[in-house]
Write a structure and sequence with these properties.
6 helices, mainly alpha
């Protein structure tokens, strides 16, 4: 029985390492951190960005695996949940837009539709549509 638990722990740990390596390789390949630093003119803070990503991954993993509860009830807890949701949404949005840029999705779409002006508005409309759809989806899921 002990050997089975050791084996399953080993498999789970190596699988976790493989997934984490893939996620970080994906982030590095897309160049998300340097792009953020360049857009915000904070190139001297790249190490801070990388540290925040690493600590966020570690902290989220610990909360998830050990089912830890933060003792933040009432409005404080809801406020932090809203801040977390906003940060997670911004992160996922930037990651997906970076992937679309790497794959040249937007230039191909604009060229095929022969769109010369209003490209910025199309991107904003897509982002707002995604946001409204996510709010609608989670509002209906939470109500049930």
């Amino acid at each position: 029985m002990l050997i089975k638990e050791i084996f399953l722990s080993f498999i789970g740990l190596t699988g976790g390492f493989a997934v984490a390596a893939g996620v970080f390789a994906f982030i590095v390949t897309l160049g998300v951190v340097p792009r953020f630093a360049g857009k915000t003119h904070t190139v001297n803070r790249v190490l801070t960005y990388e540290t925040a990503i690493l600590l966020g991954g570690i902290f989220g993993t610990l909360l998830s695996i050990f089912h830890l509860r933060l003792p933040l009830g009432g409005w404080t807890g809801r406020g932090l949940t809203a801040v977390f949701g906003l940060a997670a949404g911004i992160y996922n949005g930037c990651l997906s837009v970076a992937l679309a840029e790497i794959l040249n999705t937007f230039p191909i779409m604009f060229r095929r539709t022969k769109m010369k002006v209003g490209q910025d508005w199309v991107l904003v409309a897509m982002a707002l549509g995604k946001m409204v759809g996510a709010f609608y989806f989670y509002a209906n899921r939470m109500a049930q």
